[in-house]
Protein backbone atom coordinates (compact mmCIF):
# COMPACT_ATOMS: atom_id res chain seq x y z
CA UNK A 1 0.00 0.00 0.00
CA UNK A 2 1.40 3.45 -0.85
CA UNK A 3 2.15 5.57 2.22
CA UNK A 4 -0.54 7.85 3.65
CA UNK A 5 -3.25 6.50 1.38
CA UNK A 6 -1.93 8.29 -1.71
CA UNK A 7 -2.94 7.18 -5.22
CA UNK A 8 -1.22 4.10 -6.55
CA UNK A 9 2.17 4.83 -8.07
CA UNK A 10 3.57 3.48 -11.32
CA UNK A 11 6.59 1.19 -11.19
CA UNK A 12 9.88 2.81 -12.04
CA UNK A 13 12.66 0.84 -13.71
CA UNK A 14 16.06 0.31 -12.11
CA UNK A 15 19.24 0.70 -14.20
CA UNK A 16 20.82 -2.66 -14.95
CA UNK A 17 24.39 -1.74 -14.07
CA UNK A 18 26.80 -4.61 -13.55
CA UNK A 19 29.46 -2.26 -12.20
CA UNK A 20 30.03 1.46 -11.79
CA UNK A 21 31.89 3.26 -14.59
CA UNK A 22 33.57 5.43 -11.94
CA UNK A 23 33.79 5.14 -8.12
CA UNK A 24 31.25 7.98 -8.00
CA UNK A 25 28.41 7.79 -10.51
CA UNK A 26 25.51 10.23 -10.89
CA UNK A 27 22.02 9.45 -12.13
CA UNK A 28 19.49 12.07 -13.25
CA UNK A 29 15.77 11.37 -13.52
CA UNK A 30 12.68 13.52 -14.03
CA UNK A 31 9.56 11.83 -12.66
CA UNK A 32 6.36 13.71 -13.52
CA UNK A 33 4.11 11.23 -11.72
CA UNK A 34 4.24 9.44 -8.40
CA UNK A 35 6.58 6.47 -8.81
CA UNK A 36 7.99 3.50 -6.95
CA UNK A 37 10.59 0.82 -7.50
CA UNK A 38 10.26 -2.83 -6.62
CA UNK A 39 12.22 -4.12 -3.64
CA UNK A 40 15.88 -4.34 -4.61
CA UNK A 41 19.44 -3.74 -3.45
CA UNK A 42 22.75 -2.58 -4.94
CA UNK A 43 26.32 -3.84 -4.48
CA UNK A 44 27.28 -0.19 -3.90
CA UNK A 45 26.08 2.65 -1.69
CA UNK A 46 23.30 4.87 -2.99
CA UNK A 47 22.63 8.47 -1.97
CA UNK A 48 19.01 8.95 -2.95
CA UNK A 49 18.44 12.68 -3.42
CA UNK A 50 16.01 14.98 -5.21
CA UNK A 51 16.35 18.72 -5.87
CA UNK A 52 12.55 18.85 -6.13
CA UNK A 53 9.92 16.47 -4.77
CA UNK A 54 9.94 14.20 -1.72
CA UNK A 55 11.53 10.75 -1.61
CA UNK A 56 10.67 7.89 0.72
CA UNK A 57 12.96 4.90 1.16
CA UNK A 58 11.22 1.87 2.67
CA UNK A 59 13.19 -0.88 4.39
CA UNK A 60 12.24 -3.54 6.90
CA UNK A 61 13.18 -1.05 9.63
CA UNK A 62 10.87 1.75 8.51
CA UNK A 63 10.30 4.74 6.24
CA UNK A 64 13.09 7.27 5.60
CA UNK A 65 11.78 10.57 4.23
CA UNK A 66 13.81 13.13 2.27
CA UNK A 67 12.47 16.50 1.10
CA UNK A 68 14.85 18.60 -1.06
CA UNK A 69 16.98 19.65 1.96
CA UNK A 70 17.70 16.01 2.81
CA UNK A 71 19.02 12.82 1.18
CA UNK A 72 18.96 9.16 2.17
CA UNK A 73 22.14 7.12 2.51
CA UNK A 74 21.35 3.52 1.52
CA UNK A 75 24.09 1.00 2.43
CA UNK A 76 25.28 -1.55 -0.09
CA UNK A 77 23.27 -4.76 -0.10
CA UNK A 78 20.30 -3.37 1.86
CA UNK A 79 16.90 -4.33 0.35
CA UNK A 80 14.70 -1.25 -0.12
CA UNK A 81 11.97 0.37 -2.18
CA UNK A 82 11.93 3.99 -3.36
CA UNK A 83 8.77 6.11 -3.53
CA UNK A 84 8.78 9.55 -5.12
CA UNK A 85 6.14 12.27 -5.16
CA UNK A 86 4.88 13.80 -8.44
CA UNK A 87 7.25 16.17 -10.24
CA UNK A 88 10.36 14.78 -8.58
CA UNK A 89 13.77 15.74 -9.98
CA UNK A 90 16.26 13.12 -8.82
CA UNK A 91 20.02 13.59 -8.66
CA UNK A 92 21.05 10.30 -7.06
CA UNK A 93 24.64 9.21 -6.48
CA UNK A 94 26.01 5.67 -6.60
CA UNK A 95 29.16 5.31 -4.50
CA UNK A 96 31.63 2.45 -4.65
CA UNK A 97 32.37 0.92 -1.26
CA UNK A 98 36.07 1.70 -1.68
CA UNK A 99 35.38 5.46 -1.41
CA UNK A 100 32.40 5.39 0.97
CA UNK A 101 33.79 6.47 4.32
CA UNK A 102 30.45 6.41 6.14
CA UNK A 103 30.43 2.81 7.33
CA UNK A 104 26.89 2.20 8.58
CA UNK A 105 24.67 -0.83 8.03
CA UNK A 106 21.33 1.04 8.16
CA UNK A 107 19.77 3.86 6.16
CA UNK A 108 20.37 7.41 7.31
CA UNK A 109 18.68 10.66 6.35
CA UNK A 110 21.41 13.26 5.80
CA UNK A 111 21.36 17.06 5.76
CA UNK A 112 22.06 18.48 2.30
CA UNK A 113 23.84 21.80 2.80
CA UNK A 114 23.72 24.52 0.11
CA UNK A 115 27.30 23.60 -0.81
CA UNK A 116 26.50 19.89 -1.11
CA UNK A 117 23.44 20.67 -3.21
CA UNK A 118 25.50 22.74 -5.65
CA UNK A 119 28.22 20.10 -5.82
CA UNK A 120 25.66 17.43 -6.68
CA UNK A 121 24.13 19.68 -9.34
CA UNK A 122 27.54 20.42 -10.88
CA UNK A 123 28.57 16.76 -10.81
CA UNK A 124 25.33 15.81 -12.57
CA UNK A 125 26.47 17.71 -15.67
CA UNK A 126 29.67 15.67 -16.09
CA UNK A 127 29.95 12.84 -18.62
CA UNK A 128 29.62 9.32 -17.19
CA UNK A 129 33.29 8.49 -17.84
CA UNK A 130 34.71 11.77 -16.56
CA UNK A 131 38.44 12.40 -16.25
CA UNK A 132 39.36 11.12 -12.81
CA UNK A 133 42.79 12.78 -12.89
CA UNK A 134 41.57 16.21 -13.99
CA UNK A 135 39.15 18.86 -12.73
CA UNK A 136 36.12 16.50 -12.83
CA UNK A 137 37.94 14.00 -10.62
CA UNK A 138 38.77 16.72 -8.09
CA UNK A 139 35.14 17.83 -8.09
CA UNK A 140 34.09 14.23 -7.43
CA UNK A 141 36.51 14.03 -4.48
CA UNK A 142 35.20 17.24 -2.91
CA UNK A 143 31.65 15.96 -3.39
CA UNK A 144 32.53 12.68 -1.66
CA UNK A 145 34.13 14.58 1.22
CA UNK A 146 30.95 16.62 1.70
CA UNK A 147 28.70 13.54 1.49
CA UNK A 148 30.80 11.68 4.04
CA UNK A 149 30.70 14.70 6.39
CA UNK A 150 26.93 15.35 6.07
CA UNK A 151 25.23 15.04 9.49
CA UNK A 152 22.31 12.59 9.95
CA UNK A 153 18.86 13.73 11.11
CA UNK A 154 15.89 11.79 12.47
CA UNK A 155 13.43 11.74 9.56
CA UNK A 156 12.55 8.09 9.94
CA UNK A 157 9.32 6.38 10.89
CA UNK A 158 10.14 3.04 12.54
CA UNK A 159 7.91 0.11 11.69
CA UNK A 160 6.98 -2.52 14.30
CA UNK A 161 7.73 -6.22 14.07
CA UNK A 162 4.56 -7.36 15.84
CA UNK A 163 1.85 -8.39 13.35
CA UNK A 164 -0.92 -6.71 15.35
CA UNK A 165 0.95 -3.41 15.42
CA UNK A 166 1.68 -3.66 11.70
CA UNK A 167 -2.06 -3.93 11.06
CA UNK A 168 -2.64 -0.89 13.26
CA UNK A 169 0.14 1.13 11.62
CA UNK A 170 -1.01 0.32 8.09
CA UNK A 171 -4.47 1.62 8.98
CA UNK A 172 -3.04 4.81 10.49
CA UNK A 173 -0.94 5.48 7.40
CA UNK A 174 -3.91 4.88 5.10
CA UNK A 175 -6.04 7.34 7.10
CA UNK A 176 -3.72 9.84 8.85
CA UNK A 177 -6.65 12.00 10.01
CA UNK A 178 -8.20 9.12 11.93
CA UNK A 179 -8.87 9.86 15.60
CA UNK A 180 -9.17 6.35 17.09
CA UNK A 181 -7.45 6.11 20.46
CA UNK A 182 -5.14 3.37 21.65
CA UNK A 183 -7.97 2.10 23.85
CA UNK A 184 -10.24 1.81 20.81
CA UNK A 185 -7.52 0.01 18.89
CA UNK A 186 -7.04 -2.40 21.76
CA UNK A 187 -10.71 -3.36 21.47
CA UNK A 188 -10.46 -3.83 17.70
CA UNK A 189 -7.38 -6.02 18.02
CA UNK A 190 -8.63 -7.90 21.09
CA UNK A 191 -5.54 -7.08 23.12
CA UNK A 192 -5.17 -4.95 26.22
CA UNK A 193 -4.26 -1.27 25.93
CA UNK A 194 -1.33 -1.85 28.27
CA UNK A 195 0.03 -4.59 26.00
CA UNK A 196 -0.29 -2.42 22.90
CA UNK A 197 1.48 0.45 24.64
CA UNK A 198 4.31 -1.83 25.71
CA UNK A 199 4.65 -3.31 22.22
CA UNK A 200 4.84 0.16 20.62
CA UNK A 201 7.71 1.14 22.86
CA UNK A 202 9.47 -2.19 22.36
CA UNK A 203 9.21 -2.24 18.56
CA UNK A 204 9.50 1.46 17.65
CA UNK A 205 10.97 3.25 20.65
CA UNK A 206 7.98 5.61 20.51
CA UNK A 207 4.65 5.84 22.27
CA UNK A 208 1.49 5.37 20.21
CA UNK A 209 0.84 9.12 20.34
CA UNK A 210 4.40 10.05 19.35
CA UNK A 211 4.43 7.49 16.51
CA UNK A 212 1.17 8.79 15.07
CA UNK A 213 2.35 12.39 15.31
CA UNK A 214 5.62 11.61 13.53
CA UNK A 215 3.73 9.65 10.86
CA UNK A 216 1.42 12.61 10.25
CA UNK A 217 4.22 15.16 10.09
CA UNK A 218 6.39 13.12 7.76
CA UNK A 219 3.36 12.54 5.55
CA UNK A 220 2.72 16.30 5.48
CA UNK A 221 6.06 17.04 3.79
CA UNK A 222 4.92 16.03 0.30
CA UNK A 223 1.79 18.22 0.11
CA UNK A 224 3.65 21.11 1.75
CA UNK A 225 6.54 20.79 -0.73
CA UNK A 226 3.99 20.84 -3.55
CA UNK A 227 2.59 24.15 -2.30
CA UNK A 228 -0.65 23.09 -0.63
CA UNK A 229 -2.01 25.42 2.04
CA UNK A 230 -0.85 24.71 5.56
CA UNK A 231 -4.45 24.79 6.81
CA UNK A 232 -5.53 22.13 4.30
CA UNK A 233 -2.54 19.93 5.12
CA UNK A 234 -3.17 20.29 8.86
CA UNK A 235 -6.78 19.17 8.55
CA UNK A 236 -5.85 16.26 6.25
CA UNK A 237 -3.34 15.12 8.89
CA UNK A 238 -5.95 15.08 11.65
CA UNK A 239 -5.13 18.33 13.44
CA UNK A 240 -7.99 20.45 14.76
CA UNK A 241 -6.27 23.75 13.99
CA UNK A 242 -3.44 25.21 11.96
CA UNK A 243 -1.76 26.47 15.13
CA UNK A 244 -1.70 22.97 16.65
CA UNK A 245 -0.17 21.58 13.45
CA UNK A 246 2.49 24.31 13.29
CA UNK A 247 3.37 23.77 16.96
CA UNK A 248 3.79 20.01 16.35
CA UNK A 249 5.80 20.69 13.18
CA UNK A 250 8.10 23.07 15.06
CA UNK A 251 8.60 20.48 17.80
CA UNK A 252 9.58 17.82 15.23
CA UNK A 253 11.66 19.92 12.80
CA UNK A 254 12.74 22.94 14.85
CA UNK A 255 10.98 25.48 12.61
CA UNK A 256 7.64 26.29 10.98
CA UNK A 257 6.60 24.71 7.64
CA UNK A 258 7.31 27.97 5.84
CA UNK A 259 10.78 28.26 7.34
CA UNK A 260 11.52 24.61 6.61
CA UNK A 261 10.87 24.87 2.89
CA UNK A 262 12.34 28.36 2.47
CA UNK A 263 15.57 26.91 3.87
CA UNK A 264 15.55 24.46 0.96
Automatic annotation (TrEMBL):
Q: Does the keyword Ligase apply?
A: no
Per UniProt, what is one GO molecular function of this protein?
sequence-specific DNA binding
Q: In terms of domain of life, where is this protein from?
A: Bacteria
Q: Which InterPro entries match?
A: AraC-bd (IPR003313), Homeodomain-like_sf (IPR009057), HTH_AraC (IPR018060), HTH_AraC-typ_CS (IPR018062), RmlC-like_jellyroll (IPR014710), RmlC_Cupin_sf (IPR011051), Tscrpt_reg_AraC-type_HTH (IPR020449)
PROSITE patterns associated with the record: HTH_ARAC_FAMILY_1, HTH_ARAC_FAMILY_2
Instruction: Give the species this sequence originates from.
Output: Aquipseudomonas ullengensis
Does the record carry Transcription as a key word? yes
Gene Ontology biological process terms, A to Z: positive regulation of metabolic process
Entry keyword set = Activator, DNA-binding, Repressor, Transcription, Transcription regulation
Annotated protein name in UniProt: Helix-turn-helix transcriptional regulator
Give residue ranges for domain HTH araC/xylS-type: 166-263
Give the residue range of the signal peptide: none
Amino acid sequence: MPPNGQPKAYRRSIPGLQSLPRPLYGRIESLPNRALTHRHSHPWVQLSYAIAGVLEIHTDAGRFVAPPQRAVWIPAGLPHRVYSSPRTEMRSLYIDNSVAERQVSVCQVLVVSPLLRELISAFSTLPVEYDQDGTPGRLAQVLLDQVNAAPPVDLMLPLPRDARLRTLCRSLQAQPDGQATLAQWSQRLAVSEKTLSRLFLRDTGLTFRAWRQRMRLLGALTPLEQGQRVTDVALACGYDSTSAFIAAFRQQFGCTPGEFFRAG
